[in-house]
Specification:
mainly alpha, 19 helices
Length: about 450
């Protein structure tokens, strides 16, 4: 009975995610979040069923794993229903994010991408200089100081430079006229992601961002490439990137064999996409929350979300994230690492402060905020530079599936600030005036334009 309930709830949740993507677009903030969460839920369910049938002794709760996920899954369905209600209230019929852009618009997108890539590489260079990564015994360990260690007064601001550069390079793809230009931009994306980021990922997000940027700004090129053999090749490259990155981050010297490469690939994937990954950690947090709710007295998640954007050089007494040191509420083995901030997921972050009350309240407010943001930045009369900012905000996890609401305002300020700098650079570097114009053409006019 527990298995049947688990299957029904999981299918309902996946259906909710599909509804969000269908109605709001995968290139929207809420759609991209639903897509990533959907992958986490799908892989969690698939591996759980496989492990239960083949080797159930490896599961922490054996058959109890199914009931363990029931209530947290219900919360997910409720939270996204509330989010959709907030979105519908202020933006019931959003203009499409993706469309066929003109040549001049694609040229402007490419100019902006080049400016963002330059800005991102400068920030990445500052990261390497501040951490002394080139002179340290481990280059990636030095960079990782900004990502997961003690970044000092600047916080992790400069570390996001590599992500900004990768996204900027992705914006070059829709306007690339030659195959060599396309492959050069894609190769640069993979290089920056592999060598200037310290997390365990390698090629998966650059490939995903490339696909979604093409889908948004050049749908014809996207569908020309969306063939089974291309998708399979991209999946294999992404897996290979995870293995290579794990080897680069490994502190143990050993010979590279097929067995070690497979281990390097499956290890990082299991911590995020398996049945002992992010989604199970969120479920454990929700199930243990009644016992430890006193740790979240005073609405710390909301307070941190409102102040996370303030740099430490201004607020020297800035508090750490509310979940710091709470690994026992997330990890299946209850381990705790000093200074670790375990991911409790989007729904965990809105549930933590006061249960169902804050879940409904926070998600409704987020829905209203995202609806207003889309009307302003990606509406029918919005300038193209704001449309680019909106898409970038979505892909950077404006609605983060792991960090939750705590990074919303910080990411919003970072992305729109970077795009303002990039837009000023575009204006300064190109003498003729670039008129971005409206970024959306009504469907009948678009069809006539394509036919002509």
């Amino acid at each position: 009975m527990d298995i049947l309930e688990f299957l029904v709830l999981t299918l309902c949740l996946l259906g909710t995610f599909c509804l969000v993507i269908r109605v709001r677009s995968i290139a929207s903030v809420e759609g991209f979040c639903a897509f990533i969460l959907g992958l986490a839920v799908l892989t969690d369910a698939a591996q759980l069923l496989l492990d239960y049938n083949l080797h159930p002794s490896t599961l922490p709760l054996r058959g109890g794993e199914f009931a363990f996920r029931s209530y947290p899954t219900m919360l997910h369905i409720l939270a996204f229903a509330v989010l959709l209600a907030g979105l519908f209230l202020v933006n019931p019929r959003p203009d499409p994010v993706s469309r066929d852009f003109s040549t001049n618009e694609l040229r402007f997108v490419g100019y902006t991408g080049a400016a963002l890539a330059g800005l991102g590489l400068i920030m990445a260079g500052i990261t390497i200089w501040l951490t002394g990564a080139l002179s340290s015994s481990s280059f990636f360990l030095g960079i990782n100081t900004f990502r997961a260690g003690d970044p000092g007064k600047t916080g992790g601001f400069f570390y996001r430079g590599s992500d900004i550069a990768v996204f900027g390079l992705a914006l070059l793809l829709p306007f690339a006229r030659k195959t060599s230009q396309f492959l050069l931009s894609l190769g640069a994306m993979l290089f920056v992601s592999l060598f200037l980021r310290a997390n365990k990922g390698g090629f998966e997000f650059p490939i995903l961002w490339s696909a979604l940027v093409l889908y948004t700004y050049n749908p014809r090129r996207f569908w020309s490439l969306a063939r089974p053999k291309v998708v399979l090749a991209c999946a294999l490259v992404a897996l290979l990137g995870i293995g290579i990155k794990s080897e680069l981050l490994s502190k143990n010297e050993h010979a590279l064999t097929m067995d070690t490469l497979v281990t390097d690939v499956l290890g990082p994937m299991g911590t995020r996409w398996g049945d002992d990954g992010v989604y199970r950690g969120y479920c454990q947090f929700v199930n243990l929350w009644p016992k430890y709710r006193y740790l979240f007295a005073g609405y710390p998640e909301a307070k941190f979300a409102l102040t996370a954007w303030v740099p430490r050089m201004i607020d020297e007494d800035k508090q750490s994230q509310p979940t710091t040191g709470l690994g026992f509420m997330v990890h299946s083995d209850g381990h705790i690492y000093k200074g670790e901030t375990p991911a409790i997921g989007l729904i965990g972050s809105v549930y933590a402060d006061d249960g169902l009350y804050t879940l409904v309240l926070y998600m409704f407010i987020v829905g209203i905020g995202l609806g207003i943001l889309r009307r302003w930045a990606a509406g029918a009369t919005s300038k193209l530079q704001w449309h680019i900012s909106y898409v970038m905000f979505a892909f950077f996890g404006g609605l983060a599936n792991e960090a939750g609401i705590t990074s919303f305002l910080y990411t919003l300020g970072l992305i729109f600030g970077a795009n303002i700098v990039a837009h000023l650079a575009v204006i300064a570097l190109y003498k003729r005036r670039i008129n971005a114009g409206p970024n959306w053409v009504p469907l009948p006019d678009r069809q006539r334009w394509i036919a002509s």
